[in-house]
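help with this.
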Amino acid sequence: MVTTTSATPKCRVLNLCLTQVIFGGVFAALWFAGCALSTAHEHPATPWFDFEVHAPYLGWLIPLYLSQNVSVAILPFAFRDWREYFPVAMVMLFLGAIAAACFALFPMRLGFEGGSAVWAPLGSYLGIPDPGAGGYAPSLHVAYTVFIAMILSARWGPRWTIPFWMWVIGVSASTYFVHEHHLIDISTGALLGLAGVWIIRRPWITRLTPRSTSLVDDGR
């Protein structure tokens, strides 16, 4: 079969994009289900310290906070192909399912004055409810940051360890100072992220890798 070298990179990107779209769709379903069940509870918990409600709002940290969302979106392109990324995506979905179950079973509310300072204003601007309401502990923002940092530092070498952990600390702090998460959310989110790293390092995780070569015909 005659192949062209230019087709392979295009199909690699397409495969990764399709994988990420599927991942995003399933994740959104889990997230909104967990949040909906959480916000429907009449008596959410308030497991935060009194001093937390007086935390200053540092709006200049919003770009750092949103860097996690960007990292999740572009993460697939750190891998050679969709099959290599697939186990990572599945573990992230598993973490999302665990978090959604926690949202539903242990509903919480924010204690910061004025509530959410990032997603609530966005929802108000779009004319929809706060998309982050109810999704507090464990913080998936922190869990995914820890998970991504450790996965990529392992792939790219020790020189990336310190920059990635500085990013983890910065993003984790930003979730607090932009009034999106309390300390219990951050700590449980970090534990969830570490659990994801432990899972992805298990030998049996390779069984999640599909045998087919691509989601679409890549010409190989």
